[in-house]
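tool=predict chain=A
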Amino acid sequence: MAVFLTLVFLLFSSSAIEAATVYLKNGSVIRDVTDYEKVDGKVRMKVYGGILEISAEDVEKIEAGETPPAERLEPARSEGQRVAPKPYTPVETYLPPEEPKPDPRLLNIETRLKQIEKETGELDGLKKDYDRIRLRIEVLFQKGIKRARAAGKDDSQWLNFLDSQERFWVQTNTLKKKQMEKEASDADARLAELAREKEALLKEKAEIEGLAQ
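tool=predict ok
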């Protein structure tokens, strides 16, 4: 009887292989690894049911010392019979889903929308400069006429009744106003065109995103 117990103990001891636990950086855990090695940047693991390979960069750490659960071993049917492990399916490695690649059409639309916003800002700035100069000249024009009439002079002499600094400013910016007048007129037409294009792009973008959902 003592000989039989000793034989059974040795059989079970040989089956209880020290197992390792592999922890992955994505939070997954692979248990009951009976053997492993690092080869060519990969960790090759032996588990019940086959061989599993994974990139070494995805491995956080490996801990040894755990033995395979006893329930995976069948009791000996007769004296001297070796205990065989039950078939075991290796733990499936969890991999996070790949981020969906952006639709190139959406990238093109976003790029064009940014270009439209930039051009719109530049044209708005040009129009504001033109309006500022135009309104300032109009104010000084009315001021000069009022003074000329008070002095009993003709309206055409309004410029002579301004202060020297005001007169200099008007003379300097009148030419600039004429140059900007055509640009401001063209800016209005261009802004309307850009607004229509932006509306069409936003509609197309909404349709693409709706189909992707």
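The beta strands are 19-24, 29-33, 35-39, 42-47, 50-55, 59-66. Residues 1-17, 66-77 have pLDDT under 50 and may be disordered.
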